[in-house]
Design goal:
With 267 residues, this protein is an alpha+beta fold. It has 5 helices and 11 strands, in the order αββββββββββααααβ.
């Protein structure tokens, strides 16, 4: 029995349709891949850790307070909301001359429990030094912003910060502290272009995708404060903290803290 072959023009049409279908599927896959990698096309915040600093002599820092005695035991889980690099450094990037720093306070602060924030350059000169006594600040996440009258961070330089809680009135020098570094970089023209057309939530995603921790965190914290019921912001906030192994802190409220007073320095 002879097999009946379809006419040549039918076979050519089938082949053409197959090529068109393959091209369409390829275009869809490529478009989907671009959308996944482009922070402007997604609400998910993906933090891409930047290359750690090359200076091997830079201090490693301390992200959590650590074991303490006496009244300071109530604050030993004091935590800085900062990522830790692959080689163990508490370090993050900013593009701002006056970034905001964030900390989790595990217990109530009172007038008897002053806190101090210090920012120093690579030669240990004070850039900013401030102390505050809180009338009463509930446990939660607080922020520390640099005063507008102070020196600004310079592009390309790394600064070291320390946040301390003086938690034992009987021993004024006793404290629980966290310590780390921040490096200021200049934003690229591509980054500036992405930010110029992005919503605040998208901006946080853009910063995270470029490894710029401080702006990503501060944007999400600000959005949470202004619209605490927004599920997209809450999800993005949790995702960002989880990627820095800070997920346990994500449910903590953002609370108002203290009025900081500058401490005059001699250098």
């Amino acid at each position: 029995m002879l097999a009946i072959q379809p006419p040549f023009h039918v076979m050519r049409s089938v082949c053409s349709f197959g090529l068109i279908l393959t091209s369409l599927l390829t275009a869809v896959v490529q478009s989907s891949a671009r959308a996944t990698s482009d922070p402007l096309n997604q609400e998910q915040v993906v933090f891409v850790a930047p290359q750690p600093p090359l200076d091997q002599g830079a201090p490693s820092g301390r992200r959590q307070g650590g074991a303490s005695r006496g009244p300071c035991r109530n604050y030993e889980t004091l935590t800085a909301l900062t990522p830790v690099t692959s080689d163990g450094k508490v370090w993050g990037l900013t593009t701002l001359d006056r970034p905001t720093f964030w900390f989790h306070i595990p217990n109530t602060l009172t007038d008897d429990v002053p806190v101090e924030f210090v920012l120093q350059d690579s030669e240990d000169n004070y850039v900013y030094r401030t102390r505050a006594s809180a009338l009463e600040t509930q446990s939660g996440i607080i922020s520390v912003s640099l005063d507008a009258s102070e020196r600004t961070l310079e592009v390309g330089k790394t600064y070291h910060w320390t946040f301390s809680i003086y938690c034992d009135a009987a021993h004024p020098s006793a404290s629980v502290f966290v310590r780390g570094s921040v490096q200021r970089i200049a934003p690229s023209s591509e980054l500036e272009q992405q930010l110029s057309t992005a919503t605040p939530l998208q901006q946080a995603s853009v910063y995270a995708a470029n490894g710029i921790w401080y702006e990503a965190l501060t944007l999400l914290a600000t959005l949470k404060q202004h619209n605490p019921g927004d599920s997209r912001t809450s999800t993005a906030w949790t995702e960002l903290l989880e990627q820095a192994d800070l997920g346990a802190i994500a449910p903590a409220p953002i609370v108002s803290c203290c009025t900081f007073d500058q401490i005059p320095s001699s250098n």
